[in-house]
């Protein structure tokens, strides 16, 4: 276990290094941001001067070398918009994004697991049809529409929850529901199909013949064995969330990474984009390792090697 | 078909105490139907079985794949609800019990499953697999629980040091031993063995059969031993019942069945047993069964075997033969028994 963990942790730096190279190359191809940063009526001399000051007139390998050297010092440069450390700005926004991601995951799991189990235990009944419809709708409805509808109903008409922003637990409810329902749709289907498969296994019959309560058979023998595919997709979705959810954060004015990235993209604020992608990539690598460890915990047949 | 309890109790080789009585037991599964289709079709897996099992005996049930023998086993175990008919176990009608009451009764009848690989929960350790029925039904303290589990492991020939391992770390034979220990845990009266050795290597089969035989004596068990071929039940059973398409077609003692089969199907089964000696093989009349088993969804009319029977007549196509006693302890469902 520890040996495996050490091995996985040692894999992180090379992966991150490759990620940083890719970020740099992509940004380089996209062109330098000087033109967008200066006023429209700036003279060619001013542009050239500014370009020189930021180092964009250097050849590719010099720019890349400087970038890597800065990176090794943990320096992503300063934001062109704010003039402060790009990494600092990203890390400042990270807690809000993680908070929203966690809340959405909790909502998704709370919906998906009971619904998936029920529809597998009673296939082709009302509850199963309900779960299927819910999943199809959850997947089909775009987040921006659901978000706006939730605001209309709960904030504008019923006035029970705040429209947008942060500050209290009430603020997180609507954005978390918006993100959570879409995610729960996929998880519900997966729990259902995974459970249906397991419920037909011979060891479920064995468990029933022991005289266990049916609920104990379903939870202890079936559900725990059905978790491996469910964990995979759940954590993949969690990984998608830690990069910030652009649309939902915009709708609810949630001060997370998503908003920061969008603004940075508009302003061609390269240091922020680079820092944000780097932080997101690190989080995803971490989540992947966590997923692999979860597999081992859930299924003793999967070995660490 | 026999309809009353008195009739069916005659099936009981006339001696010993009756442990299990099946009366007109049926299990029909709905197939291919949907809410648009009015005429639903039914797969008649078990189609009216009358049978009595004596305490302490081993009753073999033989039949081809798809004849309903495993469904019969699952019905007896209460894992399926019968469509019709009664299951009377130890004087109590268990087929009509509520789920909760049935659970309590499960301590008395257990099952050993065919596939030792898929019938054990891959996430549970050996100790927990064997302990689970004990924890569910009895209130034992930790020490007593451990003692019981290790005693059971010893009875089935599993080393106590294995108790922390997972099922995938064992061989097929060892896994079947785990299944047997689990079935034994609550000291049941009846164990249904559903082809317990068919998934194992031949060398291991004998070990498991010997083990089943020795624990039968130790725990005073009654066995219903389900198999798809006569050789598998030959050495083990006191009486043997032959099933065909959901019906019991012949039931008698092992000796009678092998010496003088009355039903053409049984005779065919016996004839299809490979013989190792070439001289004996050549001297045997060729009465093997031809063709495939018909679908149990729309079984043939009259005697279901008439499509493959060498001596079938018009009567066999029209009239279902009753399962009746032809001579002492020999029951057969055929218009023209051999």
**Low-confidence region ranges of chain A:** none
**Proportion of residues in β-strands of chain B:** 15-25%
Q: Which CATH architecture of chain B would you pick? A: 3-Layer(aba) Sandwich
CATH topology of the largest domain in chain A: MetI-like fold
Separation of the first and last Cα atoms of chain B:
20 Å
- Overall mean pLDDT of chain A stands at 87
* Helical stretch tally of chain B: 12
Uncertain spans of chain B: 1-14
**CATH topology descriptor of chain B:** Rossmann fold
Backbone structural class of chain B: alpha/beta
The coarse silhouette of chain A is flat
Strand content of chain A: under 5%
CATH homologous superfamily title of chain B: P-loop containing nucleotide triphosphate hydrolases
Biggest contact? A-B, 20 and 26 residues
Q: What is the 3D form of chain B?
A: globular
* CATH domain class name of the largest domain in chain A: Mainly Alpha
Number of strands of chain A: 0
Task: Write the H/E string of chain A, N to C.
Answer: HHHHHHHHHHHHHH
Q: Largest beta sheet of chain B: what is the strand line-up?
A: 6-7-8-3-9-10-12-11
CATH class of chain B: Alpha Beta
Description:
The complex is a heterodimer of chains A (305) and B (338). Chain A is mostly helical and 305 residues long. Chain A has 2 domains: 2-72, no CATH class; 92-298, MetI-like fold (Orthogonal Bundle), CATH 1.10.3720.10. Chain A has helices spanning 2-10, 12-30, 34-37, 44-54, 60-72, 86-121, 126-140, 143-157, 169-199, 202-209, 214-242, 246-251, 257-266, 270-298. The radius of gyration of chain A is 24 Å and the shape is flat. The mean pLDDT of chain A is 87. Chain B has helices at 5-9, 69-76, 99-105, 126-137, 142-155, 172-184, 202-219, 230-234, 254-259, 264-271, 278-283, 314-318; strands spanning 18-31, 41-54, 58-62, 84-89, 92-93, 109-112, 190-194, 222-227, 239-244, 247-253, 324-327, 330-332. Chain B has a single domain (5-332), classed as P-loop containing nucleotide triphosphate hydrolases (Rossmann fold), CATH 3.40.50.300. Chain B is globular. In chain B, β9 (239-244) and β10 (247-253) form a beta hairpin. The two termini of chain B are 20 Å apart. By secondary structure, chain B is of the alpha/beta class. The A-B interface holds A 201-203, 205-214, 221, 224-225, 298-301 and B 74, 77, 79, 99, 103-104, 106-107, 110-111, 113, 115, 118-123, 132-133, 136-137, 166, 168, 179, 182.
């Amino acid at each position: 276990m520890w040996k495996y963990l050490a091995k996985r942790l040692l894999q992180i730096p090379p992966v991150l290094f490759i990620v940083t190279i890719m970020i740099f190359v992509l940004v380089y191809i996209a062109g330098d941001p000087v033109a967008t940063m200066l006023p429209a009526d700036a003279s060619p001399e001013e542009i050239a001067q500014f370009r020189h000051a930021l180092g964009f007139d250097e050849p590719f390998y010099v720019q890349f070398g400087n970038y890597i050297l800065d990176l090794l010092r943990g320096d992503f440069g300063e934001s062109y918009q704010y003039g402060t450390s790009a990494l600092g700005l990203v890390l400042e926004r990270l807690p809000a994004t993680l908070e929203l991601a966690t809340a959405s995951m909790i909502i998704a799991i709370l919906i998906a697991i009971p619904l998936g189990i029920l529809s597998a235990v009673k296939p082709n009944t009302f509850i199963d049809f309900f779960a299927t419809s819910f999943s199809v709708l959850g997947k089909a409805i775009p987040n921006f529409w659901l978000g706006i509808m939730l605001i209309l109903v709960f904030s504008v008409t019923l006035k029970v929850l705040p429209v947008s922003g942060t500050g209290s637990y009430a603020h997180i409810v609507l954005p978390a529901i918006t993100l959570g329902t879409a995610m729960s749709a996929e998880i519900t289907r997966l729990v259902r199909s995974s459970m249906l498969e397991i419920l037909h296994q011979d060891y479920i019959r064995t468990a029933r013949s022991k005289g266990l309560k049916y609920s104990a058979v379903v939870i202890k023998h079936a559900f725990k064995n059905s978790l491996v595919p469910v964990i995979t997709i759940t954590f993949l979705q969690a990984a998608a969330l830690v990069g910030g959810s652009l649309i939902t954060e915009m709708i609810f004015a949630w001060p997370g990474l998503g908003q920061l990235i969008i603004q940075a993209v508009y302003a061609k604020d390269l240091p922020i984009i680079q820092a944000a992608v780097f932080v997101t990539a690190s989080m995803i690598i971490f989540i992947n390792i966590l997923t692999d460890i979860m597999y081992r915990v859930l299924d003793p047949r999967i070995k660490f090697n | 078909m026999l309809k009353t309890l008195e009739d069916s109790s005659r099936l009981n080789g006339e001696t010993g105490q009756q442990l299990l009585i099946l009366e007109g037991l049926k299990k029909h599964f709905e197939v291919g139907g949907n809410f648009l289709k009015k005429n639903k079709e039914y797969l008649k897996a078990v189609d009216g079985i009358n049978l009595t099992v004596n305490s302490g005996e081993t009753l073999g049930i033989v039949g081809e794949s798809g004849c309903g023998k495993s469904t019969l086993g699952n019905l007896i175990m209460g894992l399926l609800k019968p469509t019709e008919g009664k299951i009377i176990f130890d004087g109590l009608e268990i087929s009509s019990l509520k789920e909760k009451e049935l659970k309590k009764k499960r301590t008395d009848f257990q099952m050993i499953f065919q596939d030792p690989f898929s019938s054990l929960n891959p996430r549970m350790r050996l100790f927990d697999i064997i302990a689970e029925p004990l924890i569910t039904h009895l209130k034992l303290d930790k020490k007593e629980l451990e003692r019981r589990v290790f005693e059971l492991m010893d009875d089935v020939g599993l080393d106590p040091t294995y108790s922390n391992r997972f099922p995938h770390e064992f061989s097929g034979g060892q896994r079947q031993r785990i299944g047997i220990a689990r079935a034994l845990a609550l000291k049941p009266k009846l164990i249904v063995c559903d082809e317990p050795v068919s998934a194992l290597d031949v060398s291991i089969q004998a070990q498991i059969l010997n083990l089943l035989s020795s624990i039968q004596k130790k725990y005073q068990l009654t066995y219903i031993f389900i198999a798809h071929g006569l050789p598998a039940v030959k050495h083990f059973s006191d009486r043997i019942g032959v099933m065909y398409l959901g019906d019991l077609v012949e039931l008698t003692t092992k000796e009678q069945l092998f010496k003088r089969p009355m039903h053409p199907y049984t005779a065919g089964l016996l004839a299809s047993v490979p013989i190792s000696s070439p001289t004996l093989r050549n001297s045997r009349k060729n009465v093997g069964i031809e063709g495939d088993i018909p679908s149990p969804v729309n079984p043939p009319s009259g005697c279901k075997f008439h499509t493959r029977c060498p001596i079938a007549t018009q009567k066999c196509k029209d009239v279902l033969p009753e399962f009746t006693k032809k001579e002492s302890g020999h029951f057969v469902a055929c218009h023209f028994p051999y």
